[in-house]
Amino acid sequence: MRKVLVSLMVLSLVPALATAVVTNPEGFEGYALTDDWAPTLAGEGWQFVQIHGMSGAVAKIVSDGGGQVLETDNSAGNWMGLSGFPMWDADGPADADFAVTKTSFDIKPLTGVLGSEFAMRFNRHPDTAEEPWQGTWEVGIRVGHYVEAGSPFGPTDPESPGGWSSLGTNVYLRTHQQLDQFIDTPIPGFGLGVWIVPGVVGTPPEIISEWWTMEVEEDNATQQTRARMYLRGETPSTWTPWQDHNGDITYAGTEGQFSGFMAGQIQMDNWSIIGEGPPPPAFLPGDANNDGLVSADDYASVQGHFGDTGAVSIPGDANGDGLVSADDYASVQSHFGDTAGVGGVSVPEPATMLLMAAGSLMLVKRKRKA
Asked: Residues of 224-249 as b/e, b for ≥16 C-beta within 10 angstroms?
C-alpha cells in the first residue's frame, strides 16, 4: 500500500508529455520539373503574385543534387520581384497545444535583382489577417543597393557612388507586438563585412551560393520569439534574444499562413512547422513570468512590465486581467510558493506537500496496527 501511495504522489508531480508534431512539411519532391510552375493557394498550397504585373518573374521547380527545390527568379525582370499573400497555406499546430512552435526552412540566395539588390522576407500570420504584418514575426535578408537605409536595412554606406550601397549582409528578426508596433533584432553572425549573395553590387567576387537554414522558435507560455540562421548541416549559430510578440495571436485550431517577398533569385526547401513539448500550463494566479512557480522572480516580472496591457498572461500579469498594475504585486504575495501541477492546477508549495505525504504515511502505519 505504501508503494502505491508514494507512486501516486510522484506521478501527480510529473507534467503531461506531448510528442512533437510536424505540420504540412514541404520538400517540393511531389511536383514535376517545370520552368513556368505557378501553383495557386487553393490548388497546391503555394501562390506568388508579380507585383504591379511586372513581367520576367517566375516560380519554378528545379533539381538540386538529386532532390527538388522551389526557385523564384526575378533576376531578369523588374526589381520589385515576387510576392505572395499568403504565400504558403501552412496550417500549423495550435500554439496552445505545445510549449514551443518551431518553424524552419532552407534558403539559397543565388543573385540579386539586376545585380543591384537582394531582398527576402517571410511573415507568419493567422488566416484572418488582412495584412501580413498582423502576425507574430518576420525574418528577412537585405543586401545591395537600395534606398531604405534605416533599421533593419543596414549596414549601408551613404557615401557610395549613386546612393546607398551595402557594406555587408543584414539578416533580421522582426517581432510584432500590435499592428504597426514591432521590434527589429539583428540575427547574429551577419552584418558589416559578411557576404552571402553573389553577384550583388559590393559583394566580393569569390562569394558563392550556399544553403542556409533559418529557424524561428515561439515560446507559447511567455509569448516571445527568437531566430537564428546558419549554414545548412553545420553547427547552429547563436539565437537572437527572446523578443515579445503579439500574445493575442495564437494560431488556434489549424490556421496559419506565410506571406513572402523575394527580390532576386532564391531557392527554398524543407519548410516545416513543429509543435514540441507539453502545452503551457493553465493560468496560475500569481505567476507573473509564466514559469509555473510563484516566487520572488514574479515580483521582478511585474516591475519590469509595469503598465503593459494585452492578453491574459502577458509577462507581468499575475492576476490575469490583461493589465500589469499594483494588483499584480498583491496576487504574487497571496499565492507565493504555489506551483502549477498537471493541467495547470495550482498545488501547494513543496513544504506543504511534504507534510501531506508524511501524514499519509502515518495513516498507512495506523491502519496496519489496527
From this structure: bbbbbbbeeeeeeeeebebbbbbbeb
HSE (side-chain half, CA atoms, 13 Å) at 335: 25
Please name the helix (run of DSSP H) or strand (run of DSSP E) that holds residue 19, with its range, or none.
Answer: none
pLDDT for residue 2: 43
Q: Are 121 and 139 in contact (CB under 8 A)?
A: yes
Domain boundaries, the chain: 2-14+282-369, 21-276
What's 74's DSSP letter? -
Domain 21-276 has CATH 2.60.120: yes
Q: Which residues contact 358 (CB under 8 A, 6 or more apart)?
A: none
**CA dist 198 to 31, 65, 143, 347, Å?**
28, 20, 10, 58
Task: Note the CATH number of domain 2-14+282-369.
Answer: 1.10.1330.10
Least Cα distance to 282 among 338, 206, 365 occurs for 338
Asked if domains 2-14+282-369 and 21-276 share a fold, the reply is: no
Question: What does the pLDDT read at residue 163?
Answer: 56
Tell me the average confidence (pLDDT) per consecutive run of 10 residues in the chain, 370 residues long: 40 44 81 83 81 75 90 76 86 84 96 86 87 86 69 65 74 87 92 90 91 96 94 96 89 82 92 87 84 91 87 80 89 89 49 45 44
Tell me the C-alpha distance between 24 and 4, whole Å: 43
Cα R_g (the chain), whole angstroms = 25
Predicted model pTM: 0.75
Enumerate helices (H) and strands (E) in the chain, giving the number of each.
5, 20
Q: How many residues does the chain have?
A: 370
Which DSSP state fits 323? Answer: B
